[in-house]
Amino acid sequence: MKKKANISGIIYSTDPDFKPFAESNESINTILPAEQKLLVRMETKHRGGKVVTLVEGFSGNQTDREELTKKLKNHCGTGGSAKDGEILIQGDHREKLLQWLIKNGFTNSKKR
Questions:
Q1: Closest C-alpha among 109, 110, 111, 106 to residue 32
Q2: How many domains does the chain have?
Q3: pLDDT value of position 51
């Protein structure tokens, strides 16, 4: 029977306090909506000419970002996703998103 290779790539360590994987229990806390500085803009780059509305500047954990994305998608009635710290909404919905964000407490939101 063949032995399986060590997946972590660590063979041996002489450090008595060594831990094979860094334990990161730190979670990013989401800032209050009134303190968030969100930027709403339209983009067509790298999307085959399709228009996408980007919401940038959201600082918080991934769960809150996905929850906000879901609410924005439902409000606009379109698809979208949360990738690389940005919220992508299909179509040009800058005015609609900006009004929704301000109504729901994101008072520092701007349109570009």
A1: 106
A2: 1
A3: 95
Helices and strands in the chain: count of H runs, count of E runs: 2, 5
Q: Which residues constitute the domain of residue 72?
A: 33-111
Q: Where are the alpha helices (DSSP H) in 3-81?
A: 62-76
In terms of Cα–Cα distance, which of 59, 50, 38 is closest to 80? 50
- pLDDT of 43: 93
- Beta-ladder partners of 52: 43, 90
- Specify the pTM: 0.73
For residue 85, tell me if it sits in a domain. yes
Compute the distance between CA of residue 17 and CA of residue 21 in angstroms, rounded to an integer: 12
- Which residues of the chain fall short of a pLDDT of 50? none
Tokens representing 59?
Answer: 């600082």
Residue 111 phi, psi (nearest 5): -110, 140
